[in-house]
Design goal:
Elements (H helix, E strand, L loop, with lengths): L8 H18 L1 H8 L6 H27 L8 H18 L9 H11 L4 H23 L3 H14 L4 H28 L11 H11 L4 H23 L3 H14 L4 H30 L3 H14 L3 H17 L7 E2 L12 E4 L3 E4 L16 E4 L4 E4 L5 H11 L4 H5 L1 E6 L4 E6 L23 H15 L3 E2 L3 H9 L68 E7 L22 E4 L15 E4 L8 E2 L3 E3 L1
Parallel strand pairs: 9-12
Antiparallel strand pairs: 1-2, 2-5, 3-4, 5-13, 6-7, 8-13, 9-10, 10-11
Helix pairs in contact: 1-3, 1-5, 2-3, 2-7, 4-5, 4-6, 5-6, 6-7, 6-8, 7-8, 8-9, 9-10, 10-11, 10-12, 11-12, 12-13, 12-14, 13-14
């Protein structure tokens, strides 16, 4: 814009200054554009550009006002300067800072065009810019970034070196970046990335903001909203019975603001909900077990495992179910006594725990026989109870009295006894199940001997009829399993000679009635008996069975096989139709030490009778 010379030199100088101011004002749009932060979105950028155009128009209008101003030739420059500063001060006091007509910025600019070093005009301009910055700070705090950016541009146009103006520009840039972060956090939330993955989630963004600005209200509100959403989801999952998911979500909620009372309360509510649900399931499980609904009970126990916080209770109920399935609701170690229909009761039976063991002897075991292998794994899966002691003379008499059964020894009229005069076993006539190893009448508590496999089978069949339960002879696997009772050594007590009294065995300190002793016996061992001892005279084994070590051997169900090749692995009896030979297991009062080994076995015809051989029975469930 060109002006004519209007007067003296001072007036001309004023016109030149105005022209320079107009040129500077034309550059204001660039100042606004330069303050915009990089990386903004397209929509925001278009808004910014529109605001820039509006700002340019306002600044051009202000410049036009300055250009239209003509100096009053009636006033001296000093008088005019004084009037402009005064009017600028009045505008500041009234809060009119940016107005094109009578605004403080315009008035002080006119004054400084007359005298750039005028103290009052510079002070006023500083106050006006300070107020402008304050307005920008308020707009920024309220999230009005466009307004704050416009005010910052104007402040930097008039006072580009002012620290407050420059600080405002920096805050605006940071604020826009923070707004973008908050927007990104919302996108993470919409995509389900609330707290995971750790480096790309809404939680991480809020934490980053608070690390730079600890009091940022938006970020704090974001954390609160995250926690509330996760707690609500956890509670919904718990209501739906998905407690694993509820625990996962609650753990995420706890990570948002550690120590949160809201999360702790929600956790307590979920625990209470789980406990109520667990109690209901436990009740249903017990009812199902008692009603024989084992499959239903199994399914309910699986559900309980997902609900309860007490794993031990799950194992207890699973054991109860296993006991019901395998032991008719008894448990291992229980002693059962079945009533006999014709009067009295059957033998005491101990429930044996099911398990797995290695049957037979290893190749390197001292004294091993070829028929004790190959060693193989047996897994017993059908519950059973075994008689607590050998069957006694008194118990067998109950059977004879009830049935009139005639034993093998009675049919043949003879049996084998120990001959004290010769120290050998010899046949003797008239000996039956009522007699002891010497052929004398036996006491009721003595183990019954002089009974054949056929006699033993007749006895268990009678027990089955009288009790309504399934009684039978033990299988060979069941007998060895019960004899070992968890041991894997050569003998039930270990690999070497016994260092204490464990049962009725051959010891080198044993003496017969005529002071005979054993030529092959355990050294330094004396159990006080030559011949069978009354049942239960020694300590029981870990399964609660008496006399498994020594006293008398026992018939088992199996037919004899020379090896375990192709033997059953489930503990069942290995029987062939019409087999001529049966298996005898367990040591007796007269067994040599090598015959006391847990794997030892011998064969005998089913009609055999012997003073070292008795009966032990099994009851199925």
């Amino acid at each position: 814009m060109q002006f004519s010379l209007l007067g003296a030199g001072g007036r001309w100088l004023a016109v030149v200054a105005i022209t320079m101011t107009f040129g500077a004002l034309q550059d204001a749009g660039a100042t606004v554009q330069d303050t915009a932060p990089p990386g903004r979105e397209a929509g925001a950028q278009r808004g910014e550009e529109g605001e820039d155009r509006r700002l340019r128009r306002r600044l051009v209008d202000a410049t036009a006002q300055e250009a239209e101003w003509a100096p009053d030739l009636r006033m001296s420059p000093a008088e005019e300067l004084r009037e402009l500063v005064q009017r600028g001060d009045q505008a500041v006091a009234a809060g009119r800072i940016e107005e094109a007509d009578g605004g403080a910025l315009v008035l002080y600019s006119r004054a400084l065009a007359i005298d750039a070093n005028h103290a009052g005009a510079n002070a006023g301009m500083d106050r006006a810019v300070a107020m402008l910055v304050q307005r920008g700070e308020s707009a920024l705090a309220a999230g009005r970034f466009d307004e704050a950016a416009r005010l910052s541009a104007v402040a930097n146009r008039y006072r580009p070196q002012a620290p407050a103006a420059r600080a405002l520009a920096s805050k605006i840039a940071a604020g826009r970046e923070m707004a973008q972060q908050l927007s990104e956090a919302q996108r993470h939330i919409a995509a389900g990335r609330l707290v995971e993955p750790a480096n790309n989630s809404a939680l991480q963004i809020y934490r980053d903001i608070l690390a730079r600005e600890p009091g940022n209200a938006a970020a704090q509100e974001g954390l609160r909203a995250l926690e509330e959403a996760l707690v609500a989801r956890a509670q919904a999952a718990a209501e739906a019975g998905n407690y694993a998911e509820a625990d996962r979500l609650l753990a995420q909620a706890a990570s948002v603001q550690p120590g949160s009372e809201r999360v702790q309360n929600a956790g307590a509510q979920i625990v209470e909900l789980r406990q109520r649900r667990a109690q209901g399931l436990e009740h249903d499980i017990v009812i199902a077990i008692e009603g024989g609904q084992y499959e239903q009970a199994e399914a309910l126990i699986a559900q309980l495992g997902q609900v309860t916080l007490q794993e031990r209770r799950v194992e207890e109920l699973r054991t109860q179910l296993d006991n019901a399935r395998n032991y008719a609701s008894h448990k291992p170690g229980d002693v059962i006594r079945d009533p006999i229909a014709s009067g009295g009761h059957g033998p005491d039976m101990v429930v044996i725990p099911l398990g797995t063991f290695e049957m037979g002897s290893p190749n390197n075991e001292r004294g091993r026989q070829a028929n004790e292998g190959p060693r193989f794994t047996v897994r017993l899966t059908r519950g059973f109870a075994m008689s607590r002691t050998e069957i006694t003379v008194g118990q067998f008499r109950q059977f004879i009295n009830a049935t009139g059964y005639v034993t093998t020894a009675q049919q043949t009229g003879r049996a084998t006894v120990y001959d004290e005069s010769t120290g050998t076993l010899t046949e003797k006539s008239g000996v039956t199940w009522q007699d002891d190893h010497l052929g004398r009448r036996a006491r009721p508590e003595m183990p019954v001997i002089h009974v054949s496999w056929n006699d033993a089978k007749a006895y268990v069949d009678w027990l089955s009829r009288e009790t309504g339960k399934r009684y039978r002879l033990p299988t060979e696997a069941e007998y060895e399993y019960a004899l070992r009772a968890g041991s894997t050594t050569r003998f039930p007590w270990g690999d070497g000679n016994p260092d204490r009294v464990v049962g009725n065995l051959t010891g080198d300190k044993d003496r017969s009635e005529t002071r005979r002793n054993w030529s092959n016996a355990f050294p330094n061992y004396d159990d006080g008996h030559w011949g069978p001892a009354p049942v239960g005279s020694f300590e029981p084994n870990p399964f609660g069975l008496y006399d498994m070590i020594g006293n008398v051997s026992a018939w088992v169900e199996d037919c004899w096989h020379d090896s375990y090749q192709r033997a059953p692995t489930d503990g069942s009896a290995w029987v062939n139709p019409g087999c001529p030979t049966r298996v005898v297991r367990g040591a007796s009062w007269a067994s040599a030490p090598e015959q006391v080994r847990s794997a030892f076995r011998i064969a005998a015809p089913p009609q055999t009778t012997n003073p070292r051989l008795g009966i032990r029975v099994v009851r199925e469930f």
